[in-house]
Design a protein that fits this description.
mainly beta; globular; 123 residues; 6-stranded antiparallel sheet; Jelly Rolls
Length: 123
C-alpha cells in the first residue's frame, strides 16, 4: 500500500483563482481543486488526456464548445463530467468556493467495467 500525504504533493494557485493540489502518478493524475467565488478558468482542451471532474461541494458552471456552438450546464455536488477532448472552461458564479476532484488518465479504448465491478477478493 502506498500513501501520499498532502504535504508531499505539488500545490499551486492559478492566476484565475483556482487552488490545486496535484497528485501525480505513473498512469494517472488526481487533482484536488478549490475554485474561488466569481472566477473563470482559462479555456483549454486536452489532446491526449481524458479529464473527469467530480463536484464535491458547491456549484460550478461547465461551458464547452461543440463545433461553432457553445453550451453550458450547471454542475452541483455529486455531479460528474467527462471533458473528453472538448474545449472547455469552468466558472464559479457563486459567492462560495467550489471544491472538486479532477482525474486525468490516458484512455486505452478498452471496457474494464466488469473488472471494476468484480475485482475484489475477501481476505
Amino acid at each position: 500500500m502506498k500513501i501520499t500525504h498532502k504535504s508531499d504533493v505539488t500545490h499551486i494557485v492559478k492566476p484565475e483563482g483556482t487552488s490545486v493540489d496535484y497528485y501525480l502518478f505513473n498512469e494517472y493524475e488526481i487533482h484536488y481543486n478549490e475554485q474561488a467565488p466569481k472566477t473563470t478558468q482559462t479555456w483549454h482542451h486536452h489532446e491526449k488526456l481524458w479529464e473527469t471532474l467530480f463536484i464535491i461541494e458547491g456549484e460550478l458552471t461547465a461551458k464547452w464548445r461543440e463545433g461553432d456552438n457553445e453550451k453550458e450546464e450547471i454542475l452541483k455536488a455529486g455531479d460528474l463530467v467527462e471533458t473528453e477532448r472538448t474545449p472547455h472552461t469552468f466558472i464559479n458564479n457563486t459567492d462560495k468556493t467550489v471544491k472538486f476532484l479532477v482525474f486525468k488518465h490516458m484512455p486505452q479504448g478498452k471496457d474494464f467495467r466488469e473488472i471494476f465491478k468484480t475485482d475484489k477478493i475477501l481476505d
